[in-house]
Amino acid sequence: MNDVTVTVSGRAGNTPALHTGKGKEYAMLRVGSTRRFMNEDGDWTDGPTLWFSVKTWRTAAVNLARSVRKGDPVVVTGRLEVEQWETAEGVQRSTLVIQATGVGVDATRGKVEYSRVVHHEALAPAPRDADGLPVDPFGVGAPEAPEREDDEAGVGQRELVTA
Prior knowledge:
- This protein is mainly beta.
- The chain has one helix at residues 58-67, and strands at residues 5-12, 18-21, 24-38, 44-57, 73-86, 92-105.
- 12% of the residues are buried.
């Protein structure tokens, strides 16, 4: 089956909130995209607004919920999928949803500040030897530092720092 990949730019219609489904966190976002065009009189006119449902999962959902607010300009890329469900009255319903592979604030519409998220809980502590020093994973030892002319005067020497 071929995936249909779409890219949409527009404005966030809501502030995304985290939910849990299938044991994983997800966030939903509505994106409104309005085409602007020049009419016969030479004036810019807004066309109809198209609304898209966007879903992100796991870490992307957490980042989305922390980063995007209602009204922010966004660019979304993802797979277009059909979600189906049954109402309480037994009526079958379906809707198109963009399963986002990328969501970002649109830098063409304002200043964007990026902040990388480091998930410390996913990092394992580095192995250490009996003296508490980090173990060399390759077993070759640290390379010798080249000597510098100013080392005799104590300039250019650095203290070894271990984490």
